[in-house]
Design a protein that fits this description.
heterodimer; A: about 160 residues; four-stranded antiparallel β-sheet; 6 strands; B: about 160 residues; alpha+beta
């Protein structure tokens, strides 16, 4: 991946222009050739660096109920429970987490999106019972920022 | 929210979950598969964005593959009367990708969360230190990801 790839990625992670020829728009902005941009995007998608290119949904706007759920799992069950949680289709992210320089009460953290509040409660309860662990749900009460722009540009990457 | 999204919208979003066609004219080609005009597809996508159902049309990156292997969740304990001001200030940091107030538990009193992504743990920590100085909150815990089990986009 070179500097041009990074500039393309940085642009596309923010937005793919809703245009008839979106890569021509991006190419013009970055001072590149349209075909070259598509060629690079193809490779980046094939390599899985771009894991998806499409509409990014707002689950709240769709009336869905989502949460950050946490579990305290004994060390010997961490992989088993982590894998089982991530198999669930409504789990979007799941991580084994630990505190920096201190112990924290929960080690498996995951995000879950259900079709409604009631289903969220019920489904987490079912997961709790199936896995034999206590799942705590840390619902968001206020959202100040929801948006991901990874800092992929490096020093020396020319900005168009 | 039945009025926010109709069956054709669902069909479009379901099809596009797997991504736009990899061509110079992705919207025209998607419309063709969906058996609608490009104009209708673009118009519906624009309306979905206006309504906030679609946040944006963009590339989702596998951040670990581009060297962003450090992902720090920082949980802060912020007095209730400062939550709004502090949340706004934290969200203003470019490096903060998410900032939420959340419920607490009896053993976990931290109510504000910021997610910071970076190349290294120390890069993330440097950002967290700047946030701490900016908002004046000293009671916080940095929670790192030791292992990623799963990372995927939410479906329609």
């Amino acid at each position: 991946m070179d500097s041009t790839d990074r500039r393309i990625l940085d642009r596309l992670q923010q937005e793919l222009p809703l245009a008839q020829r979106p890569y021509r728009v991006v190419a013009e902005e970055l001072g590149l050739d349209e075909e070259d941009v598509l060629c690079r995007v193809t490779r980046l998608r094939d390599d899985g660096i771009i894991r998806r290119m499409g509409p990014i949904l707002d689950q709240d706007a769709l009336g869905r109920a989502s949460t950050l759920a946490v579990i305290r799992v004994p060390a010997e069950r961490v992989d088993e429970v982590g894998e089982a949680v991530s198999q669930h289709p409504r789990v979007t992210h799941s991580y084994l987490r630990q505190g920096k320089g201190r112990d924290i009460p929960y080690n498996i953290w995951f995000t879950y999106t259900a079709l409604s509040e009631d289903l969220l409660t019920r489904e987490l309860q079912e997961m709790s019972e199936a896995l034999g662990v206590k799942i705590r749900s840390l619902r968001a009460t206020k959202k100040f920022k929801v948006g991901v722009r990874f800092p992929i540009l490096e020093d020396g990457d020319v900005d168009g | 929210m039945a009025d926010m999204i109709d069956p054709t919208d669902v069909k479009i979003l379901d099809f596009l979950y797997d991504g736009l066609p990899n061509t110079l004219t992705p919207f025209a080609d998607a419309a063709s598969v969906l058996d609608i005009t490009e104009e209708e597809l673009v118009s519906r996508l624009r309306a979905l964005m206006d309504r906030g159902v679609v946040r944006r049309i963009a590339a989702s990156l596998a951040h670990r593959k581009v060297g962003i292997t450090s992902n720090a969740v920082c949980a802060w304990r912020v007095p209730a009367d400062q939550v709004d001001a502090v949340g706004k200030r934290m969200a203003a940091f470019e490096e903060v990708t998410h900032c939420y107030e959340r419920e607490t538990t009896d053993e976990w009193p931290y109510n504000m969360y910021t997610v910071v992504h970076g190349h290294t743990d120390s890069e993330c920590e440097e950002v967290i230190e700047r946030i701490r100085e900016a908002v004046g909150v000293d009671d916080f815990v940095i929670v790192y990801s030791a292992k990623e089990f799963k990372k995927q986009s939410a479906r329609i």
